[in-house]
Amino acid sequence: xxxxxPILEALVADAEAGRPAALCTILQTKGSTPQQxxxxxxxxxxxxxxxxxxxxxxxxxxxxRAFELxxxxxxxLLDFLLNHDYGWDDGxxxxxxMFIGVTPVAPRVAQPAPTVSAQQRGYPTGREAAVGASDGxxxxxxxxxxxxxxxxxxxxxxxxxxPASVPLRIEHEDKLLEYRLHLEVPPILLIAGAGHVxxxxxxxxxxxxxxxxxxxxxxxxxxxxxxxxxxxxxxDDIARALRNYPLDHASYVVIVTRGHQHDHQALDAVVRxxxxxxxxxxxxxxxxxxxxxxxxxxxxxxxxxxxxxPIGLPxxxxxxxxxxxSVAAELVQLxxxxxxxxxxxxxxxxxxxxxxxx
Length: 358
Hints:
By secondary structure, the chain is of the alpha/beta class. The protein has 2 domains: 4-184 and 341-350, no CATH class; 188-337, Rossmann fold (3-Layer(aba) Sandwich). The chain has helices spanning 4-16, 56-70, 84-87, 148-159, 196-207, 224-227, 238-244, 260-270, 284-296, 301-304, 320-337, 347-350, and strands spanning 21-30, 40-44, 49-51, 76-81, 97-105, 165-172, 175-182, 188-192, 211-216, 232-235, 252-255, 277-280, 307-308, 343-344. The strands form 3 sheets. A 6-stranded parallel sheet has the order 10-9-8-11-12-13, with helices on both faces. A 5-stranded antiparallel sheet has the order 3-2-1-5-4. Strands 6-7-14 form a 3-stranded antiparallel sheet. It starts with a helix and ends in an 8-residue tail after the last helix. Mean pLDDT is 84; it is low at 110-143 and 349-358.
């Protein structure tokens, strides 16, 4: 699941329990920054957090400002210049800019605003980072809470693997800026073969935010005990399972079965189906033979040209873990090359004259 999804789930849980919280989201970046648009941090009224904006001085300042804004249920636009003076102590001298929106969520159960200050909690006061209005602050003059129902609806869509986004509304310079934060649904990775390589790839990819499905006809190999609870396991004839599993143009398929015949049957089952990636393990000779046979059987050449073989980035992998790393790297590379923008909004209104935090 996307890193954003557990943050939004926690936000809804806090709101349902009557605990104030603020969603802090990177809306835009320029130049080199430790995180990219869409990264989020949940800040609660007890100053506990979930997620990250890159750590260091920026995250500390956002955390402090979010706590202050929660006192009044007000939103803000924060602008950070990661220059030498500001980020030296924490190593954040990337030279870029980060534009961060802080949006409170209204709890379902009314709660009194926290009265303890950041200073009383022993948290450093830091430096003012909000920009926009004449006094250097862009806090909203009236509450513009993030609506729990919007977040809940987006999560429901994401769980059904449907496109989903959360509206973020921030008042800034007498304007209401509206952004949309898109939820990144974990892509399906269908692995044919639960052997040593398939298992190693599966274990890596669940941590890389893929929905991993492993197919094998051997119950002793394709088991939750062996593959882990986060992997979807299908015990069935491999080719039949591949033909029946719902795939789309965002799906990934990796074929790592236990032999030439199974590889041939597995590829035949999926080569005509939509997928972002079709990968076949094996030597060039074996792959050439399989592709030649499928071509002779009538598979169009443009379909065969989609097959990536050998699989994985060329890192000189030899051992099973190394092969898994090379495959994981190739899948992540392809995913990020095709990744859509996670934040949409009126960026031409958001940017203010370049100003370092001081």
